[in-house]
Amino acid sequence: MYQLYDLVNLHDELFREEIKKRLAKIVDTNAFIEGEYNTKFEAEFAEMQGANFCRLVANGTDAIEIALKAYEIGSGDLVAIPGITFYATAEAVFNIGATPILVDVEEESGVMCPKSLERVVADYDIKAAIPVHIYGLPCKMDEINHICRKNNIAIIEDAAQASGTITPLGPAGANPHSVATFSFYPTKNLSAMGDAGAILSHDPNVTKKIEIIRNHGRGGVGEIGRNSRCDHFQAAVLQHKLSFIEEQNQRRKEVAALYMKNITNPEVKLLPNKFIQTSSWHLFPMRVRNNNVAKALVTYLKQKDIASSDIYYAKSMGLEPALDGVKGEREIANSLAGKTVCIPITPFLTSEDVLKISSAVNSFCYEITKDETPRPQL
Ligand SMILES: Cc1ncc(COP(=O)(O)O)c(C=O)c1O
Q1: Of 137, 158, 243, 278, which alpha carbon lies 20 to 30 A from 175's?
Q2: 3-state DSSP helix/strand/coil % of the chain, to nearest 5
Q3: 296: closest CA among 359, 361, 375?
Q4: Of 56, 64, 68, 86, best ligand 1 pocket probe by most atoms within 8 Å of the beta carbon
Q5: Does domain 7-240 have CATH number 3.10.20.600?
Q6: CB 228 less than 6 A from any atom of ligand 1
């Protein structure tokens, strides 16, 4: 079975040996929280992404919440989020007492549409915008940056899926006018062996606030903080993985290019080639004509021993019950929801594997049953 995420090869014998050594060192020194690996990782990851500062936190959702708080966004403030994202983006906004406003997405890629953002900003008093590099695809950060700076709007790039993404302003975190938040959940390109996240920034004052908030307000005066420290073991894993992330992301690009060359089924719409070099390829999304065809494709691929993602994302944010009645623009996002199926894209796929998976996708066809449901033909 081809798995969507390949943690077995990622954590091979050699890797496990190194991690056991690091864990033994942590146990022997009783340095469980914010140890030397945290400091090393923060310095190295900031440098890799072109940011001045990196601060590790407990997970990617906390990273968004803490970044919003560091910008002093809170109760009653309006925060622009895209119509297609993982639910945590909206959740972070709700959790700080702010209100999400929906921005529509680009038809081509599903990321935040700058034109829609411009209209939403004209209609509402937006305090912060959270463009999301969904699937690893880069948002048009040059245009988004321009709109936000003109309107004094804080920018938080949700880069949970974007370790390796190159936006028009460089890697997520390189823009001096935004902060970028990451999730290192075990299935991400750069992943912990548990939960972890990070916030990249250029501003020492914002970074100081992040430090204060993640550690119960310590070091501040009257700030209400929380516990969102990243433990030393997760930092030790992440710091080791930094040594091969670039090579792995490069292989993901090669796999994406091979899929794009070899998948020719007209039922399946792929992203344009221009994304080969700029996406992190956390996921390889393929779009089909409707939700029923997406379900049929998932079933078909499973029968061919290919674990597909199921449907990413089954609902747009505007169709989530918790966002019922939320204002903004949502037409394209709603029209794209439920139609995207992802196939395995890992650095460990051989070219032969990619050809096998491509040929399985190419052989997908379906018949429409009496109740008008597409049934894959085997
Ligand atoms: C786009 C996006 N934002 C935020 C998150 C939240 O990250 P975490 O699960 O580490 O809290 C995720 C996690 O998958 C994500 O994909």
Answers
A1: 243
A2: 40, 15, 40
A3: 375
A4: 86
A5: no
A6: no
Do 7-240 and 244-376 have matching folds?
no
Cβ(195)–Cβ(168) below 8 Å: no
User: How far, in Å, is the centroid of ligand 1 from the Cα of 21?
Assistant: 29
Ligand 1 in reach of 197 Cβ (< 6 A):
yes
Residue with tokens 């399985």: 360
Chunked into runs of 10 residues, the chain (378 residues) has average pLDDT values of 94 98 97 96 98 98 98 97 98 98 98 98 98 98 98 98 98 97 98 98 98 97 94 98 98 98 98 98 97 94 87 93 96 97 97 97 87 76
Q: Is the pTM of this model over 0.70?
A: yes
Q: CB of 317 closer than 6 A to ligand 1?
A: no
Distances (CA, A) of 359 to 201, 261, 309, 347: 43, 11, 18, 19
What's the CATH fold of domain 244-376?
A: Aspartate Aminotransferase, domain 1 (3.90.1150)
Tell me: cis bond preceding 312? Omega within 30 of 0 counts: no
Domain coordinates in residue numbering, the chain: 7-240, 244-376
How far, in Å, from the CA of 280 to the mean position of ligand 1?
15
